[in-house]
Design goal:
single chain, 15 helices, 13% strand, nine-stranded parallel beta sheet, 2 domains
C-alpha cells in the first residue's frame, strides 16, 4: 500500500498514537518488532504555536522510526494550518490529523472526535492543511459521535475529495469511548466502496495475531492499527506478521527475552531523554512487560519507584533469578487504557 509517496508492504501494521505511551523509545521498540509505521503522541496545535516545551518535544523524531507520522489536533482552522506547517518542519513522512480522540477535555471543546459534529468545519480544516503542506496528510477518526449519528461514510468521501492520502477509522463512536466491542462493519463498507481509492486502515480491539488476520480477511482493509494491545507487548507486531505470512502462532516470549527487551527499552529511553526523564517515563511500561508473573507485587513496586538507572537495570536482571523458568501461555491481556 502507498500513503502518498510512502511505500508500505501489503497488509501493513500501524502503531496507534497514544498519549504518554508512544514516545520515541516505545516507537523504537515497536519498529524493531515489525511495526510498518508509527505515529507520535498527539500534539496540540495551540501548544505548537505558543512554542510550549512539551508540545515541541513531541516533534522529535529519529530516522530509526521511519516511516513516521506526526499527529496534531485542534478546533480552529488557522492554528491547525500553522501547526501542520511547524510539524512539517520536523520532516515526518506524514502529517496526521486527530479527529478521533473521545476524551472530554478534547472532544468537549470541538477537537478530536468533537469535530465529527461539524463536518463542514472538519472538511475545510483538512482541505486547508492539505493545501498548506507538501507531506501526505492522513486522518484518524471514529464511526461518528453516537449511535444516532454514524456519519463516517459521508466523512470518508468528503475527506478523500479534499485530498487526504489515507484514512484510519476506529470502530467505535465518540460516546462509546473505549467500551463495548469495536464494530468494523462500516470500516469494511467504506473499504469496499468502489468510489473510495485511498487506503483504509482499521483500528479497534486488535489484540492478537488471529484477530488481525480476521480483520484483513473479512473486511479487506489495507492496514490495521494496534493500540492498547501493545502495552508491555511491542512484539505483537512480530506475532501478527509471522501469522499473516505462515499461519503459525509464535509462542509468548520467555521471561529471559522479556528481560532483554525491557532493558533495551530502558536504555533507549535514557539515551533519548536522559537519566531522570528516561527512567520516569519508563515506569508506565516496565511492569507491563512482566504482567502475569505470580507474586510479582514487590518487584513491580520497585520497577515503578526506582529512580537510579543502574538499580533499575539490576532489578530487571534479578527477575531471572526467581521467575526465569516461568512459561507464559496464550495471549497476555493488556492493561486497560486507551488510544486516541
Amino acid at each position: 500500500m502507498k500513503i502518498g509517496d510512502v511505500q508500505l508492504r501489503d497488509r501493513a501494521l500501524f502503531l496507534a498514537p497514544m498519549e504518554d505511551v508512544t514516545d520515541p523509545s516505545f516507537r523504537y521498540m515497536c519498529k524493531r518488532f515489525g511495526a510498518d509505521m508509527v505515529t507520535t503522541e498527539f500534539i496540540s496545535s495551540d501548544g505548537l504555536i505558543r512554542d510550549a516545551r512539551k508540545s515541541l518535544a513531541k516533534l522529535n523524531i529519529n530516522d530509526f522510526e521511519r516511516p513516521v507520522g506526526i499527529q496534531i489536533y485542534g478546533n480552529q482552522i488557522e492554528p491547525m494550518v500553522e501547526a501542520a506547517r511547524i510539524a512539517e518542519g520536523a520532516d515526518p513522512d506524514v502529517i496526521d490529523i486527530n479527529f478521533g480522540c473521545p476524551m472530554k477535555k478534547i472532544a468537549g471543546r470541538g477537537a478530536g472526535s468533537g469535530m465529527m459534529r461539524d463536518v463542514p468545519l472538519m472538511v475545510e480544516m483538512t482541505r486547508q492543511i492539505v493545501n498548506a503542506v507538501k507531506k501526505p496528510v492522513t486522518v484518524k477518526t471514529r464511526l461518528g459521535w453516537d449511535d444516532d449519528s454514524k456519519n463516517i461514510e459521508e466523512i470518508a468521501h468528503r475527506l478523500q475529495d479534499v485530498g487526504i492520502a489515507a484514512l484510519t477509522i476506529h470502530g467505535r463512536t465518540r460516546c462509546q469511548l473505549y467500551t463495548g466491542e469495536a464494530d468494523w462493519t462500516l470500516i469494511g463498507k467504506i473499504k469496499n466502496d468502489p468510489t473510495i481509492h485511498i487506503p483504509i486502515i482499521g483500528n479497534g480491539d486488535i489484540d492478537s495475531a488471529e484477530k488481525a488476520k480476521q480483520m484483513f480477511d473479512r473486511y479487506g482493509v489495507d492496514g490495521v492499527m494496534i493500540g492498547r494491545a501493545t502495552y508491555g507487548r511491542p512484539w505483537i507486531f512480530r506475532e501478527v506478521r509471522h501469522y499473516l505470512e505462515t499461519g503459525e502462532l509464535l509462542p509468548q516470549p520467555s521471561v529471559l527475552e522479556r528481560i532483554a527487551i525491557a532493558k533495551e527499552h530502558l536504555a533507549k529511553s535514557v539515551e533519548i531523554k536522559g537519566d531522570k526523564v528516561g527512567v520516569f517515563e519508563m515506569r508506565r511500561h516496565l511492569s507491563n512487560y512482566f504482567k502475569g508473573l505470580p507474586d510479582f507485587k514487590q518487584t513491580r513496586m520497585k520497577l515503578v519507584t526506582l529512580t537510579d538507572v543502574d538499580e533499575l537495570q539490576d532489578t530487571i536482571s534479578s527477575i531471572a533469578e526467581r521467575w526465569g523458568d516461568y512459561e507464559f501461555g496464550g495471549v497476555v491481556p493488556p492493561p486497560l487504557s486507551h488510544s486516541i
